[in-house]
Design a protein that fits this description.
2 copies of one chain form a homodimer.
Chain A lengths: L5 H15 L7 E2 L2 H8 L3 H13 L3 E4 L3 E4 L2 H4 L8 H7 L4 E12 L2 H6 L7 E11 L2 E11 L16 H8 L3 E10 L3 H6 L8 E10 L2 E11 L3 E7 L14 E4 L3
Helix pairs in contact in A: 1-3, 2-3
Chain A binds a DNA duplex through helix 3.
Chain lengths: 253, 253
Amino acid sequence: MNSKPRYQQVKDYVLAQLESGALQAKDRVPSENELVEKMNVSRMTANRALRELNDEGLLVRIAGVGTFVADFKATSHVLEVHNIADEIKRRGHEHAALVLQLSRQHARGEIARALQLGQGEDVFHILVVHRENDIPIQLEDRYVRAMFAPDCLEQDFAVITPSAYLSNISPLQEAEHSVQAAMPNAAVTRHLRMKAGEPCLLVMRRTWSRGLPVSFARLHHPGSRYELTGRFAPANSGNNEYTQFSELGRREQ
Amino acid sequence: MNSKPRYQQVKDYVLAQLESGALQAKDRVPSENELVEKMNVSRMTANRALRELNDEGLLVRIAGVGTFVADFKATSHVLEVHNIADEIKRRGHEHAALVLQLSRQHARGEIARALQLGQGEDVFHILVVHRENDIPIQLEDRYVRAMFAPDCLEQDFAVITPSAYLSNISPLQEAEHSVQAAMPNAAVTRHLRMKAGEPCLLVMRRTWSRGLPVSFARLHHPGSRYELTGRFAPANSGNNEYTQFSELGRREQ
DNA sequence: TGCACTAGCCTGTATATACAACCAAAGGAA
DNA sequence: TTCCTTTGGTTGTATATACAGGCTAGTGCA
């Protein structure tokens, strides 16, 4: 009862190894000829399967070398915003991070629900202020499921951002976002050096790996200084890539 | 000096007709066999070209019938938010729109810059409040380049949303977004029935057609009631489609 | 008239074959 | 050693061929 096209079967075969973790980021994926033998298809069929997975951003193919698993950062479009340090550096500015808190806690309430944890399961709580040229632009309030990140407390999140650390330890991810405007409380206002009465842009992000929620983050940004921008261009002749809601930009004004 | 692969040449051939307007939404695109003759390629090559344009959302292919130009709404992912009426109806709620203003104006300042207009060129100004179950959720403050929409003043934007009207008259589009948190002025506060001191989520959108900016919109949403959500899932086995920052959701709380 | 069937066009997939281009590693020459 | 060449594996593209399956319009029969 397998009516799926054969190229899809090949895609599923590779996808299964990606999702099970058998293939990690940057690992080598079976070559077209290996798939021809293993799956008993023609090379054109294997080629189509790998090519489509490449087009979808899951694999990276290098002519003459081979096919490799893309790391999450490379695959992501929407989530390029993931690593704010890279965004800042891309603008040619200086990034600095100040770690306000790094501790192990029992999850409860909203955090436990967001991460689908049983009561009492542990999470790491990371609180970091990110600065662009010494101006605070993001307060990162992140909770990471402890069992996924045993060495979390040893990290120096002033050097490696939490999101970069997470993409290292969990190879393939999904993410949910929500963006809203909100009034910050006193602590957020202070950490971001915001004026009284100034709203903030609050991005909430939940990331998943292998079907399980790994991390939940509340990202506060000062509303007067920051905006989320993006461009959608359906297949411009020259430019096949499209950028989507990807830049967390410091607003110029 | 044409080193482009031939399937890309076929794609470019079709794309040129899309962008020039020679092919409009829902028009029939040359069949594979027609392209075989016209472009002197094999059917497999023509197939790849049309298949990729289909995967990119620009064409719709129906086995046994033919290939057709997708209308913009169907192609869009990020821009499903485009039509707030559809979003509301998808949630099973009632949409109502109140037209506050509909007039022809001379563009100036920010509007002229955003639409890249010469001084004195005319725009239509549309101001509409969108309600979900009688609760205001969006104040749409839109400017449309007059030469693109000659019959704009005859439209009833309580029945057809401005974005739906625009996708009808300009078949293929690009869009730029910016999302920020801001404090509304008195008029916005009143139209959206917001409490004093409540921030709003401000989405600014600029749409393009055939390389020219067509429309510029400021969309205010009450911060306490609304959020922008999205999910990015790289190729779940069953679900090849991904939703991206696509829903303008009424927050439940 | 009304219905069933068929011919023809369309897309979708699969394969075998071919050649080009790229790259890395091995091997040979200076 | 260092540099150059070769060689084999890899992806990228292009074609001819084949068959399956969906849809439409027209044909012909009742």
